[in-house]
Amino acid sequence: MNRLLRIARREYVAYVRTVGFWLSMIMMPLGFGVASTLPAMMAHNTPVPALAVIDLTGGGYEAVIAADLAKSKGKPPAQLVPLPIAAPADPAQAAKLLRPWLTGDRLLPGKRKLEGVAILHGSGEAVAVDLWKANVLNRDLDRAVRGAVTDELRRKRLAAAGVDAATLRAADALEPKMTAYSAKASGKVALRDRLPGIVGFGCAMLLWSVIMTGAGILLNSVIEEKSSRVLEVLLASASVPEIMFGKILGVAGVTFTVMGVWLSVAATLLVSLAPNIAADVGAVLAGHGLVFYFAFYLVGGYLMYAAIFTAVGAFCETTREAQTLLGPVMLILIIPIVFLTQAIQHPDSPVLAALSWIPPFTPFLMTARVASEPPWWEIAGTGLLMAATVALVVWIAGRAFRAGALSTEKVDFKGLVARLRRAD
């Protein structure tokens, strides 16, 4: 244990002393903050698209679209502007004449670009809309024009059937007063009732981040020490379990230090800005036992993947060689991320329940599903199966680490199996 802790301390100090460690710990929260606020800032500062309407139907749709845009809550999807030319009677001719404004070759007054032109033609209820856009990816113009024209067509149809405008507006305003109740809480559904699923999802994502970060550091550390022959020196003075678990423990300390700082900052901000929500989150973590579930699955999941990455690194001289062995592992790590979003709304889905029994997925999916309070036998069964898998993976990884640490041959799957068999 003394040698194991010395190796763990050596790994921890080696990373904590680097400038990159402190930069990554500081820059990551800043990056998340910028990434979360920048889209809203960009949407707020982006100018409202200029839209022109050519109504060849004579049904007054230009005024309808203008009124519908004026009713938009918040920033409108478009702003109606006058046509820069006299409206032609032919839709194809209109599109051809307005093309220079749409491409930006010619500008509207105020040096403004025309973003879209809606040309309405047809008669009666057979109204067609040709929407010419400068940016084909902007779907806001499509939704704004289609919604306004659809509402007007519906109004005209009902008016022809004898329904007046006041009755139509009153019918549109009708909606039931609906209140959602929780069968478990025996009361109205509030944010606190939804928090267990949200917190479980967050814990699962945090677990995934911890594993990815720690496993990557472990892999690079083992590859670097093998290529520089430091690993051979360590093997001369310590056993394989001491080296492997010492490195895993040291890198775990590095990873948990970073995560602890980030969580402390996030918790401080949450308590300062939203103390009620912070109290609810604390109650959820304690009341639903998420803290214990998270700790159990964090230790098991981290140990499982850390042992795999450490063993892979022992067989590789460079990170390029490691890619050939890490491909299947990375695919396994991606699968739970695909299903995690479903774990919030459908935690008891048969697919999620089945995947939870597969040990590589168990730490992530069970952490996300625990808020739905699955049966105790499912929690116990998946936990025991994961623990047995962790023990098996650690045993295999120890043999692989011993076989690969002193090997200088290129990695191939036949030789890998042979070396595992020869390992003592």
TrEMBL record:
Residues 190-397 form the ABC-2 type transporter transmembrane domain. It comes from Caulobacter ginsengisoli. It is found in: Membrane. It holds the Pfam family ABC2_membrane_3. Keywords: Membrane, Transmembrane, Transmembrane helix. InterPro entries: ABC2_TM. The chain crosses the membrane at residues 12-32, 198-223, 244-270, 290-313, 325-344, 376-397. It is a multi-pass membrane protein. It comes from the Bacteria. The keyword Cell membrane does not apply. This is ABC-2 type transport system permease protein.
